[in-house]
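Our preliminary data section would be incomplete without showing what the modeling component actually yields. Below, a chain of 223 amino acids is followed by its predicted structure, encoded as tokens that our downstream tools consume directly.
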Amino acid sequence: MKHYCVLSLLIVVLLLGGCASQQAAEPAAQQTSGVPEKAATPSAQAQQEVPAAQGTIEADVAPLLKLAATKVKSLNYHYSGPETNNDLYDIFIKGTKTAYVPFDKNDYSGATAYNIIFLDTTSKTAMSYCTDQTCTPKGKRGDLAYTAVYIATPLDWMVGITSAKKVGTETIEKRAVTIIETNKGKMWIENFFGVPMKIQKDGTTYSFQQVAFNGVQDAQVNP
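Predicted structure:
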């Protein structure tokens, strides 16, 4: 009888231990239910922290870059740059026609001497002419290689600007200009007509001086 009681007591102890182990294991079973956790939603700040797109034009600069297309019909200016060896060329532009005086001499009487070059940007042609009073005779001297004598105009420089940032203001020849860093270089753009009066690119300066707008006559750009 004594042995029977001891055996019964052991069975009860074992049953109680088994229940306790099952209850202790239940929380662990809940953690491994197999349901994936919901992905965290990025905060508004994190969503805004996207790198700024390259090739952007500042909103306050964009209108300035559009002025020349509607306001400029012709240009006359003195140009100084690497093509002129920093001498001043007198350049006239109207529509698709350009003319410029590459030399400033007192005597053009030589048989091949010329004092002006006429270019057509549509036909991509260039011709040299002698029109000075010292020319003997006056008239056409010959055809020139268009790409060899063409000089980029202020309007050409405005084409292809894909990024622009205002970095300052200045006055050049009594004209208010806005200084802009662009993908084509640093430009000093005249505020009313939207045409650059100076450009710096890769350490080289291109200068457009005494710019006159919309006064060029057809006779000045045609032979």
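Residues 129 and 140 are 4 Å apart (CA to CA). The longest helix spans residues 2-31. Preliminary results of this kind motivate Aim 1 of the renewal.
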